[in-house]
Amino acid sequence: MEYVLRTHDLTKTYGGKTVVNKLSMNIEKGDIYGFIGKNGAGKTTTMKMILNMIYSNGGSIELFGKEADDNARKKIGSLIEAPGLYKNCTAYENLHRFSLLYGGTEKEIKDILEIVNLTDTGKKKAGEFSLGMRQRLGIGIALLGNPEFLVLDEPVNGLDPAAIKRVRDSILNINKEKGVTVLISSHLLGELAKISTKYGIINSGVLVEEMTAQEIESKCGQNLIIKCSDADNAINVLKNKLGITDAVVNNAQIEISSGLERSAQINKALVDSGIEVSDLHVYNMDMENYFIERIGR
What we know:
With 297 residues, this protein is α/β, with parallel strands linked by helices. It has eleven helices and 15 strands.
């Protein structure tokens, strides 16, 4: 397993307040890692520590399998908050100017314009671009120098649906055609769900959960929810009497993803075993509800 980024107990405090609290993140090569959390949860602070824009107060960062240093960070392209552009220059001219700093050939510039869908902007100045076009140009600038890892902080924030789709398509192209690993933060759950291969959920500076897209898909869908007098004993009854092995206790209630059609049989088995059942119902857990349960409303 090849990791592009690993953090270990990464911590940041401001004025005695812990903004990022012992965060351990794992991003494998080829991932599009959706970093999910409410505004103020610690997403941007974490990214800035990874990029060495601010210092941590504890923990460590590994990049490409080694302790993070300036050489490793040269392999990273980033867009944190709004892109800084030359407003009186075209998209091509912006990329050309930034290429003097970050590297990049004429062919690479033309390839990037195609990837971020800005080949048809001609002589239009960046100051006349829409917000979505500016975001895509910012991503294009982050791609100069052929980075292996791209860090994007809320790249679709404030965009209309059409602009969001163009940015999303650009990110997918970057990942698939150039093989770039992507860390992307957002509070727009539906958009991340369309591109992410892995997720990290952060709440009040704490990484609540980390899982692949396949894992979260298996957790979503219909679940049988049971509230009873003795959850631990009920788990044993379900396993030993009915062969149900996927029952788990969550917030003092039992969740089962299989055997939904056997609800009456399940209820009888628990009652016959002396367990009082106060509630039994089917709950449709979609991805948005799953995330909201973990980050709060």
